[in-house]
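User: I'm putting together a teaching handout on how multi-component assemblies are represented. Below are the sequence lines for each component of a complex, exactly as they appear in our records. Could you produce the 3D structure of the whole assembly as structure tokens, so the students can see both representations side by side? Please keep the chain order the same as the input.
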Amino acid sequence: MSYFGHVLCHLRKDLQLEWRSRDSINGMLFFSLLVVVVFSIAFDPTAAISRQIAGGILWVALLFASITALNQAWTRELRNRVLDAQRMSPAPPSAMFLGKALANFLFVVVVELVMALPFFFFYNLHALGQGWLMLVIMPLGTWALVCNGTFFAALGLRTRNRELMLPLILFPISIPALLGMMQATTAVLTGEYEPGLWIRLLVAYNIAFTTVCLLLFETILNAE
Amino acid sequence: MKLSRIFGPVGIVWFLLTLGVIAYATKLGLILAPVDALQGNVFRIIFYHVPHSMLSLLFPYINLAASLCYLYWRQRDPLKALTADAWAISSAEVTVLYASICLWTGMLWGRVEWGLWWTWDARLTSMLLLWLLYVSYLMLRKLSATGQTHTLAAVLSVFAAIDVPIVYMSIKWWRTQHPAPIFFSGDPDAKMDPSMLPAFLWNIVGWAMWGIFLLCFRYALERRRQAREQDAALQAIEASLELAQ
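Assistant: Of course. Below is the structure of the complete assembly, with chains in the same order as your input.
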């Protein structure tokens, strides 16, 4: 089987598992809805203020929601010692990582698509910049969160306080990416400045960290 | 336990020398350097603040180098890898210490000069992020399972090293309030008054020596801990063999 075949195999397995249980997506959906509602109540924003803060709130909601799903992503593999079986298989470990990251990416994208409507309703949003750029920013930002998140979830798999560990190491590393996605989204919503610089930052971040994740995944999978 | 058993005579001489240099540098900085024309005596904190900030940017390189050596030696030469890991943890702890001092003294100065404890300026934010990265590195070391700690920490250190330039660039695009650097800034007008230079240089030397002392001391402690761990593991194996007989 080719490398791409392995990736597809893992992706299909993860999608199938999620399709049967729908744990991650339902959890994330409800969680991000709650965050949006809570922030809306906390700030009680007018349309103009909404544009300023919505970019930040959107990504904070997605960040917290994806943490809940990422924590579960590898725990599935621990049951019945599936992960140990995969470590023994001759398939390339990075293919497993890529499959898992792509699956998580798709889950978060589904959440984004469903959440887009309530988000725009609750905050009375109307993009003053080039709205279509969100179609570039959203996937880039999501991949930046999910790629490193999947990696660190695997890294923290055998640590004590697994659930606590993931945000502790993911947040500091992701801060430039968070800054990029929040600034780019705010630029699109307010139309006050160009988001181009921040989109380029996200692209650079994604290329750098996807490469390192693929290279180092085997090391952390067999870290004993 | 006697100090000399951890560190040996060289360490003690180095320690005393460091104390001497720091004392001399402090005297130069607090008493002999002239009062700053604009800031008055408040400026004297730079003799303490700037060396710490410069050195806290230097120790992460030791951490990265040690982590890369660890990853390289991990399977080829486990004993050498343990040495590299001891350097990695000592340099990470010294980085956090120096960055904390840099942040804290910077805040004290900012309170007086700017009237603010903190502002989200480029240099302050990057330093805070560096501090956060290395604190999370130490947290990972604390929480991860025994046997895995070294590898996971080394991997995180590589991630942090890649993150630092991206952080630096992204934060730089924000407006900056921090006084422009007077060293390596490329601006010919920005330079320190020659009468202040000796105090500044002696402080850098003193705090660098102190950092090296802490680094080596912590390294020696970590090596002792590793040796004890190995002894305990050996004894456990021997005990299990005796049981089997």
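A couple of points students might notice: Chain B touches chain A at residues 71, 74, 129, 132-133, 135-136, 139-140, 143-145, 147-148, 151-152, 155-156, 158-160, 162-163, 166-167, 169-171, 173 (CB under 8 Å). The mean pLDDT of chain B is 84.
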